[in-house]
Design a protein that fits this description.
Largest sheet: 7 strands, parallel
Helix content: 25-40%
Strand order of the largest sheet: 3-2-1-4-5-6-7
Number of helices: 14
């Protein structure tokens, strides 16, 4: 079977690029896989980060995958070329990665052309976000250009299924657990190694906030919680990720709470080979999200057997089993977040939860449901 995937891969960075590469690699074990990637992703003036290129010295390999860097969001001629390439490839199934409405005009054009050129070939969509986390009214309009076009959709949380049904009431939707990110972290660190390299006190409790800093991730609530926790026990917060909003307001709050000596900020995109260092140093990953669908950061935590304390928001509660591999807490409540973190520490839950994660985590099996979904739907249209 020949499979075509539209989505980013290396040299582009981030969780969607990792996902596309891993999806392609698992499909390539049994099928011929072509990835239609991007000649350019975003105009520099619109991209909130410093660069969309992956600085990793050890990126995910794209062995046995054919990659075509052709699509450009602002050049309609590239949309036509993409459709023509797909026509030549004549895939048994086309998969699109949907995560941001910026791509809606180009994706809609490609899919309309594709349906005209190859009407018998099914279009499947893997939806990472139905709408952007900080959605505006026009995002709904743009999403409705694309999301009705695929014959079937796959999402990774029931909340995203509900959101999709609002936009596309007759959508055929499968909900599958978020698959593992096995292979993204090429090097593991012991706690002593990680803390020595980071200059952290080996006796402190280290809380990790990992990923781009954006309003919906609730970092301010975690800062308020740290202020409360340190009155009971020494604690250090690692904030690791590029700021996609005003950094100054966080620095100001850190100063107001006198947290300067117990907060370390790594304001940059972390290459693959360094991820293990930050998770290795941490006692627990904290996700104080205001709202969420799912998060690839959760998979990095499971990969490193790191327990998670997260707000009970969106799809996070579908990955985190309260009291088993992590703890759930009310969103937008720094008091509750602080008391939950203190409970984790005072009850000594870390060893038991790490053991549970090691027993529950089965990275080799986690992609099977998604690969079977692709194969079943492709066979059904032959």
């Amino acid at each position: 079977m020949r499979v075509a995937i539209v989505g980013p891969v290396y040299p582009y960075r981030g969780g969607i690029a990792h996902y596309t590469a891993l999806l392609g690699r698992h499909l390539a074990d049994r099928h011929e896989v072509h990835v239609i990637s991007f000649r350019n992703q975003y105009p520099a003036r619109l991209f909130p980060g410093r660069s969309d290129r992956d600085p990793s010295r050890e990126p995910l390999a794209l062995d046995n995958i054919y990659v075509h860097y052709i699509l450009h969001p602002l050049q309609p001629v590239s949309w036509i070329r993409t459709a023509r390439l797909l026509q030549r490839l004549d895939p048994d199934v086309l998969l699109i990665q949907w995560w941001v409405t910026f791509w809606a005009p180009s994706f809609a054009a490609v899919l309309y052309l594709y349906r005209h050129l190859l009407p018998a070939s099914p279009i499947l969509a893997i939806c990472h976000n139905i709408l952007p986390h900080e959605a505006q009214w026009w995002d709904v309009v743009l999403a409705k250009l694309v999301l009705p076009l695929p014959a079937h959709h796959l999402v990774h949380s029931t909340c995203d299924k509900e959101r999709l049904l609002i936009l596309v009431p007759k959508a055929s939707i499968t909900v599958a657990p978020f698959p593992s990110y096995e292979g993204v972290i090429p090097r593991r660190y012991t706690r002593d190694e990680a803390r020595r390299e980071l200059g952290l006190n080996p006796e402190d409790t280290v809380l990790l906030f990992f990923g781009f800093v954006r309003p919906y991730k609730g970092l301010m609530y975690l800062l308020e919680a740290v202020d409360k926790i340190r009155q009971h026990t020494p604690v250090h917060l690692l904030i690791v990720g590029e700021f996609w909003e005003d950094k100054q307001k966080y620095l100001q709050r850190i100063g107001e709470l006198n947290l300067n000596t117990c907060v370390t900020i790594i304001d940059r995109y972390v290459p693959n080979e360094e991820i293990g260092k930050y998770f290795g140093a941490a006692n627990v990953l904290v996700l104080p999200y205001v709202q969420a669908s799912q998060s690839a950061v959760v998979q990095l935590a499971w990969e490193t057997e790191t327990p998670i304390i997260a707000c009970n928001a969106g799809g996070l509660s579908e990955s985190i089993i309260d009291g088993v591999n992590g703890l759930l807490v009310r969103p937008q409540d720094s008091e509750s977040l602080a008391s939950t973190i203190l409970r984790y520490l005072t009850e000594g839950l870390e060893p038991r939860m790490r053991k549970s994660i090691s027993e529950m985590y089965a990275p080799g099996d986690s992609w099977n449901e998604i690969i079977s979904w692709v194969e079943t739907l492709a066979r059904g249209h032959r």
